[in-house]
Amino acid sequence: MTATRQTVRQAKGDATRQQILDAAERIFAEIGFAAARLDHVAESVGIRRPSILYYFPGKQQLYDEVEADIFASMHAFVLNRTEDVTEPMERLLALLDAWLDFLVSRPTAARIIQRLIADSAAYGNNPVRFSESALQDLEDVVAAGVASGQFHPVSAMVLLNTVAGSALHYVCNAHQLGPSRSYDPADPAQLAQFRSMMHRLARVAVAPQD
Questions:
Q1: Is the pTM of this model over 0.90?
Q2: How many CB atoms lie within 10 A of CB 82?
Q3: Does residue 123 register a pLDDT over 70?
Q4: Burial tier of 2 (Cβ tally within 10 Å: 0-12, 13-18, 19+)
Q5: Residue 165's closest CA among 192, 204, 133, 201?
Q6: Do 168 and 110 touch, CB atoms closer than 8 A?
Q7: I want to staple 75 with a disulfide (CB 3.0 to 4.6 A). Which of 46, 133, 175, 188 is the partner?
Q8: How far is it, in rounded angstroms, from Cα 70 to Cα 158?
């Protein structure tokens, strides 16, 4: 009986912890790290502020957990999409597609990453503590393409800031252009149009130069 109670208590605790993380991600995405308060998260979940401190020592630790999950989930998404793709160009396009589809399905993650980019002060002394896996994914694909001679020696960070970074703008800018220009990033026709343009830009960006 005791073991059963412990199992139920653990499951309930895990569910509450996940609810806190989900609410925190929405709030950090909406108003940013500086403006967000643990009281906001507690109110969203329907618990008291001290209950959050049972799971997370403070706002920074909660934010770190949210950011870590975003980049870990994105990395896993990329690996799933690219594990059987070996040809460099197809692997690059598969990676870009994975990033795009991940951000479209999780727009709160897109907004948090966008806020990270815009904030000149890193949340800690290691700005790539959580994003390193994403940067490495892109660097590995580009390095393989260059080594094979299929890509010209393009900088992975230039590619990140031009072609790959456009996925963030696509998701985050959907309702920031006025009513007449708003769009749904998940709309199949809209998404296909953007994906096609992203592929064209990527091909041009890495194409061997005469």
A1: yes
A2: 20
A3: no
A4: exposed
A5: 201
A6: yes
A7: 133
A8: 23
Query: Residues 36-43: contacts with CB within 8 Å, 24+ apart?
Result: 36/63, 38/62
- What does each C-alpha distance from 121 to 83, 157, 174 come to in angstroms? 35, 20, 26
User: Residue 154: phi, psi to the nearest 5?
Assistant: -90, 145
Please report the pLDDT score of residue 124 as a whole number: 64
Cα angle value 143/148/149 (rounded, 5°): 100
Q: Is pLDDT larger for residue 102 or for residue 121? A: 102
Q: How confident is the model at residue 107 (pLDDT cuts 50, 70, 90)?
A: very high
Pair of tokens at residue 70: 């975003």
The band of 63, judged by pLDDT with boundaries at 50, 70 and 90, is very high
